Amino acid sequence: MKLHSIETGLFKLDGGAMFGVVPKTIWQKTNPADENNLCTWAMRCLLIETNNRLILIDNGIGTKQDAKFFSHYYLHGEDELIKSIRAAGFHEDDVTDMFLSHLHFDHCGGGVKYAGDKLELVFKNAKYWSNKEHWLWATEPNPREKASFLKENILPMQESGHLHFIDATKQDLPFDITYVSGHTDCMMIPRIQYKNYTICFMADLLPSVGHIPLPYVMGYDTRPLLTLAEKEKFLNEAAEKQYILFLEHDALNQCCTVKQTEKGVRLDRTFSLSELG
Fold first, then answer.
1. Separation CA 212–CA 117 (nearest Å)
2. Element (H or E) spanning 27, and its range?
3. How many CA atoms lie less than 13 Å away from 120 in the CB half-sphere?
4. Closest C-alpha to 190, from 180, 204, 175, 205
């Protein structure tokens, strides 16, 4: 097995929304805001090369929305999804499995594109993986999340016949999955056994190292008290078992470990995925 960090570019979101009830005077120490109170975030994905499979976890925001949509998110940076996949030595047609932690637009928008006036899959040879519970949640969205579940990102997976649901009774993919429902219903956190490490793709359970303290919960989360409980359980286990936490949204840090302190679980160290060898 070999792992590749896939950088898809940077975007901006309101710092207050990203840190919920935590005051700006505190969160800006780790995530400084610009004059509009916006902080920079990554949309980092993970490519798993194993046996005869090439598995991509999440795929960023994509390019198919209009200028008005993108004007809210200030996309910037030199990195792009396809550019990064090719820099890793692959073509998008090589991807066999497109695993989606959840279906918010900044995690799944890169999996579908326009070809003329028609929508088609970017990874035409891949199975697109979700789960039944989250799919229903996304395709029949609540008013609070409706703006995050864009039908043009989601429905082409099903219409093309490439959509597959994770079956908990059998191992469809070469990693374990932890399900969490505080951010959105049935978000999936892959846990990958790599060399002597357990690599956890944290999605939106832990967006950045700045979110490690328990009260630092996003305003976007649908069930913040549930996030607190899920995050506490996961981080305690991560500290005990020395999991490597792969960070999707941290603009500066690809990976981190955590440790127990008198104040609870805190950051241990940060490093790049390539440092694992």
1. 43
2. helix 24-27
3. 9
4. 175
Tell me the DSSP string of 203-270.
TTTS-SGGG-STT---TT-S-HHHHHHHHHHHHHHHHHHT-EEE-SS-SS-SEEEEEEETTEEEEEEE
Angle between helices 151-159 and 132-139 (to 10 degrees): 130
Residues 6+ apart with CB under 8 A from 200: 178, 189, 190, 191, 192, 234, 238, 243, 244, 245, 246
Residue 75 CA from chain centroid, whole number:
17
- pLDDT, tens digit, for every residue of 119-145? 999 999 999 999 999 999 999 999 999
Looking at the chain, the whole-number percentage of residues with pLDDT higher than 90 is 96
Q: Which CA distances in Å does 156 have to 58, 116, 143?
A: 16, 15, 22
**Sole residue written with tokens 């609870």:** 264
By residue count, the chain amounts to 277
What would the pLDDT profile of 39-71 be if each residue is shown by its tens digit? 999 999 999 999 999 999 999 999 999 999 999
Determine the Cα angle at 74 with ends 213 and 228, to 5°: 20
Q: What pLDDT is attached to residue 167?
A: 84
Strand, helix or coil for residue 13: strand
In this predicted structure, the answer to whether residue 250 has a pLDDT above a threshold of 90 is: yes
- Could you count the other beta carbons within 10 Å of the beta carbon of residue 89? 11
Q: Does pLDDT of 170 surpass 70? A: no
pLDDT value at 169 more than 70: no
Report how far residue 166's alpha carbon sits from residue 191's, in angstroms, rounded to the nearest whole number: 15
Give the integer Cα–Cα distance in Å for 8 and 84.
7
Report CA dihedral (204, 210, 216, 219) to the nearest 10 degrees.
-50
